[in-house]
Write a structure and sequence with these properties.
CATH class: Mainly Alpha
CATH superfamily: Exonuclease VII, small subunit
Radius of gyration: 17 Å
Distance between the termini: 42 Å
Number of strands: 0
Structural class: mainly alpha
Order of helices and strands: HH
Number of helices: 2
Largest sheet: none
């Protein structure tokens, strides 16, 4: 069996992303540091999106296993 990457800690990644955004908004970085922070932010965003996608897939599998395979749109806050 091939080695699988460690699962993404969504909350930790999100907290790091929020801290980066706050520092960028407060101009606490030089231009070079801002670019590095932006690159790190893109990576963190992708990790969060992947974790959310995996969670959504797990929920879908569980719903289908319980015989409730009808799709129901999420009615969350629209931005």
């Amino acid at each position: 069996m091939a080695d699988q990457p460690a699962p993404v800690d969504f909350e930790q990644s999100l907290a790091q992303l929020e801290a980066l955004v706050e520092k960028l908004e407060n101009s606490e970085f030089t231009l070079e540091q801002s670019l590095q922070a932006f690159e790190q932010g893109v990576t963190l965003t992708r990790q969060c999106q992947k974790a959310l996608s995996e969670a959504e897939q797990k929920v879908q599998v569980l719903v289908e296993q319980n015989g409730q395979s009808q799709g129901v749109p999420f009615e969350g806050d629209a931005e």
